[in-house]
Amino acid sequence: MTTMSSAGHTRRDFLYVATGAVAATGAAATLIPLIAQMNPDASTIAAGAPIEVDLGPIAEGQVIKVFWRGKPIFINHRTKKQIEEAQNVNLASLPDPQPDSARVKEGHAQWQVLIGICTHLGCIPIAHQGTYDGYFCPCHGSVYDTSGRIRSGPAPLNLLLPPYEFVSDTRIQIG
To answer: Are 140 and 125 in contact (CB under 8 A)?
Structure first.
């Protein structure tokens, strides 16, 4: 009859340790994707993230289009003539009266930032078109001035303004 020492390691001890290690690895391999799938995907994060736009390359009189949250954003570097015309409008003649000063940031009247979606049925207007050298919606004929205010046509409201701020004299952050 042979007796084993209780202090020595046996094959059974090794199997217990190996089985425990495999079980722990399997649990981790299961939990990591389970936890990771609860995070929003990259497109969702990007869709709501603020964007920065460098205004330096935009020439006076030029309108560029960028996208934020899937919406077109028009950035218009207005000329002195466009600013004066927008400021000298009789507000009583506008369907949605709003002064130009309320549609630009103080000290930056040359920069007009608008959400480029017509307030009638959601079409995208064309820049530098229409009677007022602003925006023209070809779908149903809405005409906006260089301040994005509705001047004629079926659109009930002015073009909307996105939330934005100047982070420097030549950069804005939208969102």
So the answer is: no
